[in-house]
Structures are given as C-alpha cells and as structure tokens.
From TrEMBL:
Pfam families: LRR_1, LRR_8. It is found in: Membrane. Keywords: Glycoprotein, Leucine-rich repeat, Membrane, Receptor, Repeat, Signal, Transmembrane, Transmembrane helix. It comes from the Eukaryota. This is Phytosulfokine receptor 1. It is a single-pass type I membrane protein. One of its GO terms (cellular component) is membrane. It comes from Quercus suber (Cork oak).
C-alpha cells in the first residue's frame, strides 16, 4: 500500500499509523483540532507540536534523523516515549527531565468504550487490536540511536518512571549517583555507551 487518504476524517483521540513514510503535518493531514484531546499516537516522520495532551508516543523503528526535539518536555501528560531504533543525534534534551507526568505521577487515562473501532483497513485487510493505554509502563526509551553527551543528573526528577533505556548510544561521562533515588524504576539499561567512572555504590 502506497497511499492512505483520510484527510476528510476528524480524529480527536487515538491514531495508530506506525511504520510509514508520511511527510505531512499530522494535525493538518488528519483533521486533528488543537483544542481536542489527542492522547494516543503511534506514527513516524510528522509534526506533533500541536498535540499538547499526548499520553503515549511511539516513534520507534523509523528513519528519524536530527536531534530529539526539546518541545517534547512541554507534553505535561506524556508518560511513555519510545524513540528507539532511529538515527537521532546530539544530546538528550534536558526538557525530558521535567516531564510532569513522570515527576508527579498524576496521569489521567480515559480508555475508549467497547464500541471503539481501531481500523483503517479496507475489506480483507489486517485486523487491528487496540491495546489499553493503562497497560503501558511509564517509559523513556532512547536506545539504539547516536545520542552523545552526558546522562543528566536531573533524570532523578522522574520518580514515577519505570523504564529508562539508553543503551546503544554514544553517551559519555559518569553515571549520576542520584539515579538510585528513582524509587519506581524497574529497568535501567545504559549498556553499550562510552560511560566512565564507577557504578554508584547505592546500587
């Protein structure tokens, strides 16, 4: 399939069009109104800055290049961000250390009712299954990129984060001691970087 045209639809809350090569502004292309509460988005290579109420964003397995946008930090409700397996460069923006939902843990999730249909397929196409947003653990996954620079001590602010995956980058410097204070952290993967110094004794 080469072309999907849904520009005449008005989509307010949930979209999944992952692994594509779309180049349009997603808000204009799919009729998303800035005042609406888009909360679940899985897509590639699009402009997302208008989607202020995102909860979950998965841009993994795409061909993304350049730096991680600093404006991700403005998404106050964002608790799951997966940018893994791309070609992103530069430092991790400090704005990711102030994601409010991962600091306070105040996450309001409204799942769709049983009548919600997740399908853009034509007759005979694959069936899509909706996965509840509440089944995703609070996650920041920047693995398998080309990110450089330090691991910010300010990640300690994200006390509600469950998964922090920074493996397979070019991060350098020490592992911040205060990361051991992230009380809800279940998985931390910093392997295959250029880190120096000792593993913090608190671990």
């Amino acid at each position: 399939m080469e072309v999907i045209d849904i520009t005449r639809y008005t989509i307010d809350e949930k979209i999944s069009i992952a692994r594509n090569y779309l180049e349009k502004d997603i808000c204009k292309a799919y009729g998303i109104k800035p005042e609406k509460a888009l909360t679940h988005l899985s897509l590639s290579n699009t402009s997302l800055i208008c989607c202020h109420k995102l909860l979950l964003l998965d841009l993994s397995w795409n061909h993304l290049v350049g730096s991680v946008p600093s404006w991700f930090g403005k998404f106050e409700s964002l608790f799951y961000l997966d940018l893994s397996i791309n070609s992103l460069q530069g430092e991790i923006p400090k704005s990711l250390t102030v994601l409010q939902s991962l600091i306070s843990g105040n996450i309001t999730i409204e799942e769709p009712d049983s009548s919600f249909q997740l399908s853009l397929a034509q007759q005979g196409g694959p069936t899509l299954t909706y996965r509840q947003i509440s089944s995703f653990r609070p996650t920041l996954d920047l693995s398998y990129n080309n990110l450089q620079g330090p691991i910010w001590p300010d990640f300690w602010n994200l006390k509600r984060l469950h998964v922090l995956n920074l493996k397979e980058n070019n991060l350098s410097g020490p592992i911040p001691n205060n990361l051991s204070g992230m009380r809800d952290l279940e998985k931390l993967d910093l392997s295959h970087n250029k880190l120096s110094g000792e593993i913090p004794v608190q671990w």
